[in-house]
Amino acid sequence: MEAVDAVELRSQFLQVLRSRRSSDDCRIVAFSKPKFLFSRLKAAFPILIGPISALLSLSVEPAKPVAEPLYQEIPRPRFSAAMESCPRANITDLKDRLHEENLYLTTEAGEQGRLPVLILSLTEDNPGKRPAVVFLHSTNKCKEWLRPLLEAYASRGYIAVAIDSRYHGERASSLTTYRDSLVSSWKKGDTMPFIFDTAWDLVKLADYLTQREDIDPDRIAITGESLGGMHAWFGAFADTRYSVVVPIIGVQGFRWAIDNDKWQARVDSIKAVFEEARIDLGKSAIDKEVVEKLTILVWDRIAPGLASSFDSPYTIPIISPRPLLILNGAEDPRCPLAGLDTPMSRASKAYKEANCSHNLKLIAEAGIGHQMTSVMVKEASDWIDRFLKK
């Protein structure tokens, strides 16, 4: 294996993210402590740092709680036993002591550049700087769905943060908004709704979180389920300010799935865009005969490099030396366990070379498919506590 230059690969990815944005959207935000921030940003994003005078202020707007969250699935989900099982402190008046914030961050121009953020924290007399955890929802859900996790972590002293990913929640207007965005991306090639646009939002979110007075900028974890797990993976790849990383049922080998005829479940998860591509290419069916050409074309159109230079064998290892826990189901057809052999082998080498092998772990829960379980929620909680609690 050739060594992957982490700084160079991260720079290439950020260039891809910038490629479908205006020049103003690509500038880094400025805060009140420019010398301190400049050194942090230079380490994280060396290709993006220009003169301090070129930096822009971050736009933050207050928002109201969402009374009726939009879920893009029928029937609407009502309860998650896995999330409800998350460890929480024994606080009898927890609901009264929780402080809720709803706000919008402007991450770029346009309707989708308005990032809805929900934050829960515990009201304390002398809070000081606390660790934060960013939670990312799965396909067709929204930030409000994550409230059981937000409350549990807030009860234990964390600043708990959730966002609506692109074309979800407050950024959606119908039951088909996300699906339609994928098809539009294939047709027009002007957006990257599958993973990459939300990764851009996560860079901007880190800008905001690291300047808050109540958050320790060196103790910010990121985690998510399914699509949210992929967002956590790519958010951490793109931005080193996420110091602890726990993707849940999200990490996979996109190219491996094509080469080993294990592409069906992933294609089915966003089938509308693949069907549209099939029709445009004049194919009668999505089958093994045409899947390589079709899949590569779709990935390179809606998420350039996803099945090549930014696939898991290259991007998972460079999360090192930050603590990384990957949680998957051993029988997950969307994230086949065998597809993680190469990423984990390379990551193990990277963590060993950094003298921190203990910071890397993969848990594949036996007998579990594409499902987040109570066991996974507990393992994630323990991992985050291990590295963020002082």
Considering the chains and any ligands shown, give keywords for the structure:
single chain, 390 residues, alpha/beta, 9-stranded mixed β-sheet, two-stranded parallel sheet, 17% strand
Alpha-carbon distance between the termini? 37 Å
The largest pleated sheet is described as:
9 strands, mixed
Number of strands: 11
Order of helices and strands: HEHEEHHEEEHEHHEHEHHHHHEHEH
Identify the strand order in the major beta sheet.
Answer: 3-4-5-7-6-8-9-10-11
Q: What fraction strand? A: 15-25%
Provide a concise account of the structure shown.
Helices cover 38% and strands 17% of the residues. With 390 residues, it is of the alpha/beta class.
Give me the secondary-structure topology:
Elements: H1 6-18, E1 29-30, H2 34-44, E2 56-57, E3 60-62, H3 81-84, H4 94-97, E4 98-106, E5 114-122, E6 130-136, H5 147-155, E7 159-163, H6 177-188, H7 196-209, E8 215-225, H8 227-238, E9 244-248, H9 254-259, H10 264-269, H11 271-280, H12 288-302, H13 312-315, E10 324-329, H14 341-353, E11 360-365, H15 374-388
Helix pairs in contact: 6-11, 7-8
